[in-house]
Design goal:
- It is a single chain.
- With 649 residues, the protein is of the alpha/beta class.
- It has a domain of 124 residues: ANL, C-terminal domain (GMP Synthetase, Chain A, domain 3).
- Helix content is 32%, strand content 23%.
- The chain is built from 21 helices and 30 strands.
- The strands form nine sheets. The chain has a seven-stranded mixed beta sheet with strand order 5-4-17-16-18-19-20, with helices on both faces.
- A hairpin with a 5-residue loop joins strand 24 and strand 25.
- The N terminus is likely disordered.
- The structure holds 5'-O-[(S)-butoxy(hydroxy)phosphoryl]adenosine.
- The site of 5'-O-[(S)-butoxy(hydroxy)phosphoryl]adenosine has 22 residues, from helix 12, strand 24 and strand 25.
Length: 649
């Protein structure tokens, strides 16, 4: 990320919200933002009670917050249902016939589901889930392409109090199996396949492979027919989605659930080889997703809102499904790749549907930049009024291009910093109020008490680099790591007493704006996706030829970070191009295409300290082609370094 920091120093323009935008916005001035923020952190119970009153509760809470660090309960005693908030409550008025989801398949099919239709589909599928044994608390894995049925399955779980765990389609059979084992899921909802860049992804086949050893608790697989390709149907275990619908009606009341009822588990990478099942619950999560759509995207009934994230990531959960639907907004969903059949697919979609709010990732923006302005210029993007980014620090060049070429120099950009763990936006501009500077997510959202601290937990002064922490609980904070209390405490709450440790490095400038520098733990951010170096390392050493492996990130123009693997082979094994190719394939098989290494570098030894710890700092420098800097005096064998600098695959 060093490139980003350097370039942030040269771009120092400030972009004030236009009068026109501010006039219409829910929060139209800095003073109003500041007043609300102050109340939200000083009197959170009052502030959030007022906001929560906009949701529909089957029973009102008795206490807004119960905080026993690190465990928070929000809206204690309150009962509500997420699917009722996203669907039923919009059916009394004109939203009944409004588009809830506008969908476009990669091959070009188009579907619109109104709130009434989506409600009906969710009720029917909730009955299918019940018919197949789902109850309150059942874990349901959803491994689907980007089709409306993915959202239907999520909302159907929410309707009956089952928990979903969505797995991104770019994860392998082994990853599905690990998640099934860890979550104790009994049902998997999948599809025969999905389309991606003109090819078919064999989703059902991956599920079959995941269940082959029969060691998971999965009893039922519900298969949605998307591509029509041939798939194996295991008698007694697998059923077709469309067939199941024949047995159910559309009558399914939304169960009143305690505010702290688990809503979903979403696995994400950490600094060990085992992904963490991040747990989110009902009331607080929904409120934060709703509030951020209201204040950050400033969503309106007339907006066509498009978040390009896959439903398999938290962005797809909070900002394609739950937040926008709770707002009664129109959420666009596109199944495939941005460059299929050509590089202007996204601009084509924006023009065709009149998209007004567009939310994507810096890595995508950098790819669009590279493909060239001509693809954008072919289309009328004048419907856009607000742009957003998420996933990694955005370099100011990409910000400026997004602003100028996509936003026609008229749309504010909200650079939203948050994490799977935080459930929703944490540091972000409020578009009608906060002036933006390219490269910074600006100021904390309501209720968020963010700070940059030194190693002793002391808040740092302007422009001093340190660790990003959150000093107060917020409604959509994770409630734990599924099945691992100790890891929850250890990872997030042990370094500084009472503070949530985000795992990012940051600095605050003289205006209090927070500049995120990147991860400070052994987690990479590859094209906006989180990847644990330890995960890739353990995949590599599971290969019969590998003795040791160390994985680091290397700055990459498009992806932010590229995955570089330093590998030593076992005695008698030959390190050559074929093995390098085989290792890349092996990592794809073990974790999935998301984790494909960019480079394999063979070496005789890895640089280690005298106590045997791999010196990643050095490896990072070697990977980036930098001259080795800093202290190497603890290095076990200096000759290792000299060799590394020349190692190639
Ligand atoms: C990590 C979280 C939140 C949904 C997508 C990723 C990085 C995220 C930004 C941003 C700088 C960002 C951080 C964070 N990150 N958004 N706007 N500016 N960095 O979710 O997989 O949980 O990853 O992504 O490093 O810790 P995630």
């Amino acid at each position: 990320m060093s490139k980003n920091i350097e370039s942030t120093l040269v771009e120092n323009r400030i972009f004030k919200p236009s009068k026109e935008f501010s006039k219409k916005a829910r929060i139209g001035s800095m003073a109003q933002y500041q007043k609300m923020w102050k109340e939200s952190v000083e009197k959170p119970e009052k502030f959030f009670a007022r906001e929560a009153a906009e949701l529909c509760w089957q029973k009102k809470w008795t206490k807004v917050l119960d905080w026993k660090c690190p465990y928070a309960k929000w809206f204690v005693g309150g009962k509500l249902n997420v699917s009722e908030n996203c669907l039923d409550r919009h059916l009394d008025g004109p939203r009944k016939t409004k588009a809830a989801i506008i969908w476009e398949g990669e091959p070009g099919e188009k579907r619109v589901l109104t709130y009434q239709q989506l409600h009906r589909e969710v009720c029917r599928f909730a009955n299918v889930l019940k018919r197949n044994g789902a109850k309150k608390g059942t874990r349901v894995i959803i491994y689907m392409p980007m089709v409306p049925e993915a959202a239907v399955a999520m909302l159907a779980c929410a309707r009956i109090g089952a928990m979903h765990s969505v797995i991104f389609g770019g994860f392998s059979a082994e990853s599905i199996k690990d998640r099934a084992l860890d979550s104790g899921a009994t049902i998997i909802v999948t599809a025969d396949g999905g389309y991606r860049r003109g090819a078919v992804v064999a989703l059902k086949k991956n599920v079959d492979d995941a269940l082959k050893a029969k060691d998971t608790s999965v009893k039922r697989v519900i298969v949605f027919k998307r591509t029509g390709q041939d798939v194996h149907i295991e008698e007694g275990r697998d059923v077709w989605w469309h067939r199941e619908l024949e047995y159910v009606d559309a009558n399914c009341p939304a169960v009143a659930l305690d505010s702290e009822t688990p809503l979903f588990i979403l696995y994400t990478s950490g600094s060990t080889g085992k992904p963490k099942g991040i747990l989110h619950t009902t009331g607080g999560y929904l409120l934060h997703a709703y509030m951020t759509c209201k204040y950050v995207f400033d969503l309106r009934d007339e907006d066509v809102y498009w978040c390009t994230a896959d439903v398999g990531w938290v962005t797809g959960h909070s900002y394609m499904v739950y937040g926008p639907l709770a707002m009664g907004a129109t959420s666009l969903m596109y199944e495939g790749a941005p460059n299929w059949p050509e590089n202007d697919r996204f601009w084509n979609i924006i023009e065709e549907y009149g998209v007004s709010v567009f939310y994507t990732a810096p890595t995508a923006i950098r790819a669009f930049m590279k493909w060239g302005d001509q693809w954008v210029k072919k289309h009328d993007l004048s419907s856009l009024r607000l742009l957003g980014t998420v996933g990694e620090p955005i370099n100011p060049e990409a910000w400026m291009w997004y602003h100028r070429v996509i936003g026609g120099s008229r749309c504010p950009i909200v650079d939203t910093w948050w994490q799977t763990e935080t459930g929703g936006h944490m540091i972000t501009p409020i578009p009608g109020a906060i002036p933006t500077k390219p490269g910074t997510a600006t100021l904390p959202f309501f209720g968020v008490d963010a700070a940059v601290v030194d190693d002793n937990g002391k808040e740092l002064g302007a422009n001093q680099g340190g660790k990003l922490v959150i000093r107060k609980p917020w409604p959509s904070m994770l409630r734990g790591i599924w099945g691992d209390k100790a890891r929850y405490k250890e990872t997030y709450w042990s370094e500084f007493k009472g503070y949530y440790l985000a795992g990012d490095g940051a600095r605050r400038d003289k205006d209090g704006y927070i500049w995120i520098v990147g991860r400070i733990d052994d987690v990479l951010n590859v094209a906006g996706h989180r990847l644990g170096t330890a995960e890739v390392e353990s995949a590599l050493v599971s290969h019969p030829s590998v003795a040791e492996a160390a994985v680091v990130g290397k700055p990459d123009e498009l992806k932010g970070q590229a995955v570089v693997c330093f590998v030593t082979v076992k005695t008698g094994k030959i390190a050559n191009k074929e093995l390098a190719a085989d290792l890349k394939k092996h990592v794809r098989t073990v974790i999935g295409p998301v984790a494909t290494p960019d480079e394999i570098r063979f070496t005789d030894a890895l640089p280690k300290t005298r106590s045997g710890k791999i010196m990643r700092r050095l490896l990072k420098q070697v990977a980036a082609g930098e001259i080795i800097k800093g202290d190497t005096t603890t290095l076990e064998d200096l000759s290792v370094l000299a060799k590394l600098a020349t190692a190639e695959d």
